[in-house]
């Protein structure tokens, strides 16, 4: 894609899958993708993607995925291609096509009931539940509160007590910029200027398409709530400082509740750690101490394991799903 070429809208949101399979060197039949929507009791909507292999047209999901803060369900696309199993990827509240929360409560135990409602509606058997970052903490909360929904838990590059939306000040700065733009190409330029987007303009364009929308006035805005919150905080330093103090005050409580969730999970649990991700050796050791029955896997990756090494992750998850 040339620098000045516009980011065109695809035929549909799944029309990138053949291109992604080819880029990954996967000689697989592309699964059928479907957008799902569930009305929640308080008027909000939960959205998700369902992927069905070409040779199993009616098969229900066996693996369910939860993304991290600032991402959306499509972050799992290539991992799901490598997985080769029926899968469900949920847009967490405040992300993708799911409704924003008016209370801004994007924490695991608050998000878990919405995820459980989606799994009740869209799955037929206990799942291998995979969550990265904020999604990993949410997955643990789901597994603890609704053990009937989970046969195995996989937590990707997060442990309780870490900030799931970023030790990365760069990411906060990236989303703290303007919240609306003249075109998606401006967003692609911004992502590339921050060293984001997967290394090529084409990959950055895909990511921008999935994470943005065109408003009725023709302006383009980020879909997820965090960008809008980050922008508001950057415009009001006093409010930002107060919010940071509040975050510091509750982080220990949230961390402890996360450890409680993990301790009460009955399903087999695996932690996948990126070698260049957010977890330190001390974090991994604390996880092993607190959850001694869990397995620990380290991969050569940054924090977004599903985007850095999707083939390896999908292959490992396939083996886990087949073994359970």
TrEMBL record:
Q: Which residues belong to any copy of the AB hydrolase-1 domain?
A: 65-310
What is the superkingdom listed in this entry's lineage? Bacteria
Q: Which GO terms describe its molecular function?
A: catalytic activity
Q: One Pfam family this chain carries? A: Abhydrolase_6
> What InterPro entries does its record include?
AB_hydrolase_1 (IPR000073), AB_hydrolase_fold (IPR029058), Carboxylesterase_BioH (IPR050228)
Question: How is this protein named in the record?
Answer: Pimeloyl-ACP methyl ester carboxylesterase
